[in-house]
Design brief:
single chain, 472 residues, mainly alpha, Fumarase C, Chain B, domain 1, Fumarase C, Chain A, domain 2, Ribonucleotide Reductase Protein R1, domain 1, 3 domains, two-stranded antiparallel sheet, two-stranded parallel ribbon, 4% strand, binds arginine
């Protein structure tokens, strides 16, 4: 049990209490960010004359060597250390001696861990933005290819009005676009450096917090030392945004599961993303989609767990906050795995356009348009609604679509029906006449595609948030 304190203690910590208190099993993933932060801190200490240039050089070299030794498997992170910070400091001292004992000057593990969490999360926010961009690319590509793939649009999971696959997928484009913009928002708000806040009240050393912030690509230092060590708002925001991403993925999964059912047969999932049954040879199950749907609850749970942890914590740092990590890492890992897999599954999904179109023709999805036809001939809408309602009942009885009736049969319901009705209520007309912005006609969807293509292009030329970070 290697500890960072000792002077004040005469007895040893209970073994179980040590493990209970330790975080090394999960904060070991901070190794790289802890090295980054410690190097920046040492450089600032040297610039301020708090340590010498030589001491700084050996600290930087020592930290780099520890990092590469761990990465190459030459050095193991073991549970004899309480956390990653203790592991690094102990090993640094082992390697470089007294200079290593100076790295923690003017720093507390409270601002150190606050920095690590922020650096780690900032990388994850950028990674999530990238994954969302891949999803948007995939969706836009499918949208371009399916402007004329007709399918039923649903409300209450009942066929409502015809749309196109392009239009349907476009709804998900808007959802994931908002998710991506949320990542940018979070980034803007979180990109301030807590290092230098000390345990809670800053330090008496003449630290240059602007300099460390700059070295670590932050916009600047945080402005209140107590808030700096006890703020996890950005993490909560990120986990809430991840929960929303998962909610979108889960809705999409539910649709893929329904579309993949024997009854619908709208899609076929590629073999790479489906599984079989150990007993029923005919089965091809949408397990990936089901798991994405299932894991959504887990990410919500992670968010609620952190919110609950934070709600009773008085200022400033309290050990409860160590509980942020496992939940946050789980939410990050789960969401990114789900997004990667779902995007790949979507890219390889085969759409059965004839089944989709057939389904759109069969469910009276043109009933509204049939009523509108009568309205255009002069009938008040409410009366037209009733006439078409009766007509639908008649068709259900006969087992046919409105389009299958003869003009004589139609005239039996209203004298206003004429030969032009068939064209007016055809699937093609129903979709193509919906021309307003955001509507399903190929012309309207094309306009949306153009706007969204521009959105993705600007995102790219901006090289996204990464370059704006450097620029600010
Ligand atoms: N492992 C701790 C955490 O994750 C690091 C900070 C420890 N600070 C302290 N005062 N015990 O929060």
């Amino acid at each position: 049990m290697a500890q960072l304190w000792g002077g004040r203690f005469t007895g040893n910590i209970n073994e179980m209490a040590f493990s209970f208190n330790a975080s090394i099993t999960f904060d070991r993933r901070f190794l790289e960010v802890d090295v980054r932060g410690s190097k920046a801190h040492a450089m600032m200490l040297a610039k301020q004359g708090i340590i010498t240039e030589d001491e700084k050089d050996s600290i930087v070299k020592g930290l780099d060597e520890i990092l590469s030794d761990v990465q190459e498997g030459k050095l193991l992170i073991t549970e004899e250390y309480e956390d990653i910070h203790s592991f690094l400091e102990a090993n640094l001292i082992k390697r470089i001696g007294d200079a290593g004992k100076k790295v923690h000057t003017g720093r507390s593990r409270n601002d150190q861990v606050a920095l690590d969490m922020r650096l780690y999360t900032r990388d994850e926010v950028l990674r999530m933005a990238d994954l969302l961009r891949n999803m948007l690319d995939t969706l836009l590509d499918l949208m371009k290819k399916n402007l004329h793939t007709y399918m039923p649009g649903f409300t209450h999971l009942q066929k409502a009005q015809p749309v196109t696959l392009s239009h349907h997928l476009g709804a998900y484009f808007e959802m994931f676009k908002r998710d991506l913009l949320r990542m940018k928002d979070i980034y803007e708000r979180m990109n301030y450096c807590p290092l230098g806040a000390g345990a809670l009240a800053g330090t008496t050393y003449p630290l240059d917090r602007d300099y460390t912030a700059e070295l670590l690509d932050f916009y600047g230092p945080t402005l209140n030392s107590m808030d700096s060590v006890s703020d996890r708002d950005y993490l909560i925001e990120f986990m809430a945004a991840l929960s929303t991403v998962m909610m979108h993925l889960s809705r999409f999964s539910e649709e893929v599961i329904i579309w993949n059912s024997n009854e619908y047969h709208f899609v076929e999932i590629d073999d790479a993303y489906s599984t079989g049954s150990s007993i029923m040879p005919q089965k091809k199950n949408p397990d990936i989609a089901e798991l994405v749907r299932g894991k959504t609850g887990r990410v919500y749970g992670d968010l609620i767990s952190l919110l609950t942890t934070m709600k009773g914590i008085p200022l400033a740092y309290n050990k409860d906050m160590q509980e942020d990590k496992e939940a946050a890492f789980d939410a990050m890992d789960t969401s990114s795995d789900c997004l990667i897999l779902f995007t790949d599954m979507l890219r390889t999904l085969k759409f059965n356009s004839s089944a989709m179109e057939k389904s759109a023709t069969m469910g009276f999805t043109n009933a509204t348009d049939a009523a509108d036809y009568l309205v255009n001939k002069g009938m008040p809408f409410r009366d037209a609604h009733t006439v078409i309602g009766r007509l639908v009942l008649y068709c259900i009885d006969k087992g046919c679509a409105i389009d299958d009736l003869s003009i004589q049969e139609l005239k039996g319901f209203s004298e206003m029906f004429e030969g032009d009705v068939f064209d007016a209520i055809s699937l093609k007309t129903c979709v193509e006449k919906r021309l307003t912005t955001g509507a399903p006609s190929p012309a309207a969807v094309q306009k949306t595609i153009d706007i969204n293509e521009e959105f993705l292009k600007n995102l790219r030329s901006d090289k996204d948030i990464e370059t704006r970070r450097k620029r600010k």
